[in-house]
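ERR on first pass: missing label on line 2. Operator R.T. fixed the label and resubmitted. Corrected input:
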Amino acid sequence: MSSESLILFFILGLVLVGGAVVFSTFAAPKSWNAAKFQPYECGIPVKDGAWTQFNVGYYLFAIVYLVFDVEIVFIYPWGAVMKEVGMSAFIEIVIFFVILGLGLAYAWKKKALKWV
Amino acid sequence: MKFSIYDFSSFTQSIHELLTGVMSPTWVFITELAIVGLIFLLFYAVLGLFLVYLERRVCAFIQNRLGPNRVGPQGIFQTIADLIKLLFKELFVVKNADKFLFNLAPFVVIIASLMAIGALPYAKGLQALDFNIGLFYIIAVTSLGVVGILLAGWSSNSKYSLLGAMRSGAQIISYELSVGLSLLAIIIFAGSMQLSVIVESQANGWWIFKGHIPAFIAFVIFLIAATAETNRGPFDLAEAESELTAGFHTEYTGIRFAFFFLAEYMNMFLAAALATTVFLGGWMPLHFGNFETFNRIMDFVPPIVWFFGKTFVVIYIIMLFKWTFPRLRIDQLLTLEWKYLLPINLVNIVLIAFLVLMGWHF
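pass 2 clean. output:
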């Protein structure tokens, strides 16, 4: 099948989830209770919402991740033609990885890879 | 109509010809889409339910319990009964939640896993989407799943959900690198990203055997990273029951909750199927060099049986991980990825490139 049929799987997901949710909305019983609609906090009275300032502990990981993820996008086409290009492709990737490795070592030394 | 269990391409071709004889090209296209869609919908639901059942049985087996054994023979209809129960449970949204995003999250998670499953080669000629960037496409689509998890965690306005979603974010962005790099190993060997080409390239031996030790290292790293990517134990920090009740789907009820559950199991299937396709030869039978008789007997087993057989072996291994290892702490989890798997992977890629350059693989 051609790549236009990709849309099929999108529609399938919509139908599967949408159909079940619509069915369930009509078939399931409903009741109203003030306590039921509170978020679950192990039974103690709920204090504030969850949408407050939040320390994202992996902020530095996310930055290092970005570098490596973009790198993977570059390496994938390289991997596909590695066999045909041969020696020059190999030398290039060694240089590329040395630079990347230095970057990773730097991040490591600066304690960016440490959970705080 | 020619039907052969060994090669589906002639079968699908004959269906296509039959349809073109009856109606116009547009309608042929639409009918084919409808057929494929129906098959995949059934496949997705049935396999998801079966995997949940299997997990409960495997868990029971390891913990020396019986597991579900009342509904149907050996309790095989237990998960179907559970599904029916969940369908008739009330769907409610927590007060103060972001209603639109809360409703959207299950759609994102399910669509991401469905779109990836459509691109897998199940047998010869039995592949819905065969892109020339197949492997890349699957990695791209599966990483969309984390958006659904983050949406679910943030929109429910509950502290447990938020914590679970944030942990999941850290985990998935880290382990995605290892998944990508370990799959790259086989792309270098096969010289293509197209899944059908990768499978064909293993006709005379699976990559895990042909690629010497580097391919085996890549396989092990892929298994670890894929287990972490699918949020399964021992990496199930996003839904650690003892710390976060249910993590990012704490506030979900009824069938919406069931979809998160289903997507998790189908992602596990996807990880196992990808490991099968890329490292274990996909639907190719097991061949040993020059043992003619042995190879003939192996050829006799249909490819689709090979595919699902290998996939379920990998799934069983992933399930064993969950029920035998204790859960990791988040700093241990990130250390494992960034200080062990990633450097090993980078060295491994260079090694493989060298092997391919020298032509030392079979």
